[in-house]
Amino acid sequence: MARTQGSHSDITGPRVRAAALRLFASQGYAAVSMRKIASEVGLQVGALYNYTADKQSLLFDLMNEHLQALLEARANASANGDPMDRLQEFTAFHIRYHEERPDEVFIAYMELRNLSPENFVVIEKLRDRYEGELEAILSDGVRAGVFDLAEPKVSARAIISMLNGVTTWYRRGGRLSLDEVETVYWNMVRKAVSR
């Protein structure tokens, strides 16, 4: 399919993804039509298909890009050291990385049900890699006698759910600084896993 005359794929493509991200996060994937996305970007609906195959592809691409970037950002984290220190570092990283990306977090966790089965498998594997890092930290802590957890996998998911909550209520310039929020959440996580 030919690109619309006068359009710039390096500009319009990211604008399409940004509009879809905002709309999916604020209204929900099911409530957002391709017509609504096109209108948000100032395109005719037909022109939208120059930048994406369909709405499902948009949702998948947004989730995939978020999780790939998250895993890349985590690649430099140390897998060595005391499990408590590693858990604190993971907690701080998760809060700071996700605080800047509330729409991406919402979509990556709340819109899984709208993925096609084949897209779900891909996204689930990426999420499992990230959650698996936390599960490994918790398992190491249990083996070292530092943490008291019967189910590290369940605990990892519970901790991530709690940490994701920061994106729903925290706003810069509010009563608490991000450093203070990080300290509060770290204390909750530490108490939840400690002997």
Number of helices: 10
Average pLDDT number: 92
Percent helix range? over 70%
Q: What order do the helices and strands follow?
A: HHHHHHHHHH
Write down the CATH class of the largest domain.
Mainly Alpha
Number of domains: 2
Beta-strand segment tally: 0
Label the CATH architecture of the largest domain.
Answer: Orthogonal Bundle
CATH superfamily of the largest domain: Tetracycline Repressor, domain 2
Per the principal axes of the C-alpha atoms, what is the gross shape?
elongated
Beta content comes to: under 5%
Class per helix and strand makeup: mainly alpha
CATH overall fold name of the largest domain: Tetracycline Repressor, domain 2
Ranges where pLDDT stays below 50 over 5 or more residues in a row are 1-7
Largest sheet: none
Protein name: AcrR family transcriptional regulator
Domain HTH tetR-type: 10-70
GO molecular function: DNA-binding transcription factor activity; transcription cis-regulatory region binding
Keywords: DNA-binding, Transcription, Transcription regulation
Write the layout of secondary structure elements.
Layout: H1 9-27, H2 34-41, H3 45-48, H4 55-74, H5 83-99, H6 102-110, H7 117-143, H8 152-164, H9 166-169, H10 178-193
Question: What brief labels describe this structure?
Answer:
single chain, about 200 residues, mainly alpha, Arc Repressor Mutant, subunit A, Tetracycline Repressor, domain 2, 2 domains, about 70% helix, about 0% strand, disordered N terminus, transcription regulation, HTH_TetR, Tet_transcr_reg_TetR-rel_C_sf, AcrR family transcriptional regulator, transcription cis-regulatory region binding
